[in-house]
Amino acid sequence: MESNKKIVITGVSGFIGKNLSIYLKSKGYQIIGIDVVGEGENCDYFYLGTFNDKNIKEKALNGAEVVFHLGSIVGVDKCQNESALVKQVNFLETISFFDTCVEMGVKKIIFSSSSEIYGNSKDLPYKEDAIVTPISLYAQCKRDVEAHLKKISENTDVKVCIPRFFNVYGPGQRADFVVTKFINLVKNNQNIEIYGTGLQTRSHTYVGDVVNALEKMISYNKNSYEIMNIGSTFEYSMNEVAKTILDLFPNSKSKIEYVDYGSNGTRDVFLEIDRRVPLTTKAEKILNFKATTDLREGVEKIIKSIT
Ligand SMILES: NC(=O)c1ccc[n+]([C@@H]2O[C@H](COP(=O)([O-])OP(=O)(O)OC[C@H]3O[C@@H](n4cnc5c(N)ncnc54)[C@H](O)[C@@H]3O)[C@@H](O)[C@H]2O)c1
């Protein structure tokens, strides 16, 4: 354990940020949080405001060794509908924040990228050095920030680690993300709506595994720029996700309903990705990290946290 290291977490009130701050605090790190919402309950010091506010970022970054940048507008569909704001926050303000990290002498930047960056590539499982073909604006911003960080790592002494997360789920996630959404529906005897055939798959990754990987990145120091898939090798179709949850609520009256993409304001089919599976050997080798929580176990943990 490397206690007392000053760690800055942007987006600390969000789903991953909250889980990460609880975990790192329990390990003895000093946590400085920034978020536009929340109260920073797991932080040693909390700044309420945007990460790119000059006053906030300069104070928060002063003496910080490692920065986890999780603050972002999230949700592929939401980002598509708010393009000007998303370009502003997820790209322009993000790179400006990183430039300040360099000026303030931060030693390492850990930036939350996404498996969305691989687009609908059929070259599976996804490997970190593949040419990425993002479809959505959300993913295009992630790609462009990754490129900016590569330049920072080449031109300065700052080390950069980029986890590309694969469908993280767990306690405290926003209600519009699939696992949490399905649990809430089934708990309340409402039907689950699945777009298309339900055969589209994801590698749902439990947040407890993710924070474990993120902590390992703090002490990883071999290369100055490293992208790592942080995902589970368990792959589930949407149908399997729904059935796992229905199975854990045996008294629920909910059923699965199939709906067309694009109907009633649902996701456009062009934004959908059929199958998304990471190659995880890089993180296994250099971080000694492997996600071990399967979907049933993860869903049981969420149910326990809300009942
Ligand atoms: N959850 C996933 O499956 C997943 C997958 C891939 C990548 N990611 C990335 O991981 C990061 C965290 O995701 P999450 O699931 O915790 O999302 P989240 O929405 O729960 O958390 C994001 C947090 O960022 C904060 N935020 C937004 N704009 C801000 C600003 N300008 N200044 C300060 N804070 C701001 C929000 O208030 C929120 O608390 C994001 O960058 C997201 O793109 C998440």
TrEMBL record:
Gene3D superfamilies per record: NAD(P)-binding Rossmann-like Domain (3.40.50.720)
Domain of life per record: Bacteria
NAD-dependent epimerase/dehydratase domain span: 7-231
Entry-linked SUPFAM superfamilies: NAD(P)-binding Rossmann-fold domains
Protein name listed in UniProt: NAD-dependent epimerase/dehydratase
Species annotation: Candidatus Nomurabacteria bacterium GW2011_GWE1_35_16
